[in-house]
Fold:
Amino acid sequence: MIPEALALSAVLFTIGTVGVLTRRNAIVIFMCVELMLNAVNLSFVALSRLYGVTGQVFVVFVMTVAAAEAAVGLAIIIAIFRHGQSVNLKNINLLKG
Amino acid sequence: MPTSPGLFYQVQFYIFGLLAIASALAFVTRKSPVSAALWLVSVMFNLAALYVMMDAQFVGIIQVLVYAGAIMVVFLFVVMLLNLGHPDELSDIRGKWGRLAAGGVGIVLLAQIMVLARTRFLPSLQPPVNPVFGGAPDRGAVGMIAQSLFTEHLLAFELTSILLLAAIVGAVAIGRRKGAT
Structure:
């Protein structure tokens, strides 16, 4: 079932990418990034059936980094919301010339 | 690695996989952030079931506890904190050109998958003759991960703790109101 799992992982990653590109809500974009990380975790687990347990250790690391990223990213989103009262990327254009 | 999974195993695998894909599609297309988050929780539960089916029980439990239980709760908490459920905020999907660009990127990614699926696996990706998995049945699923985590990857593990500490401090420093002590 490993090729199926890898294909599922690729499809989920593609869906996450399309979500990042189509949505404008910053929180939803963050959730799409989490979906992409989950897809990568799935291929790690699938390949760990062939190559030993190291893939699962990497999944633990990826989850830790995802948790840290979610904490900092959501704090940034809250700060942006306090600044501009919106999380829509259309309204976040401070760096646009 | 089991030699040939039974029909029941395969059917279950496909059911969970299709549920994950359907939930992911629903997640991307929902307009409300709350329902999107709940569909993402559904994706994560299906992935946890797949992890358990692929002999990664510990990762499956961690998936439910950490991802579906902690990270998604933080997301929902922020959605509630910022009060994003208003109808005028709902239509956050980009216009025609954004959708076309996203569709193009998606098609390119899927085409890459198809090409990869048609080619043979690289020689370096061939499975080893004697897979490591299942070699240590006495330690259990957690014990094997712990063995690898605390011996081979000890430095990375300790660095992870520093990363988490930095993330906590950074999140508090960024999220704090100005003027609050």
Observations:
- The domain at 1-90 of chain B is CATH 1.20.120.1200 (Four Helix Bundle (Hemerythrin (Met), subunit A)).
- The CA atoms of residues 44 and 106 of chain B lie 21 Å apart.
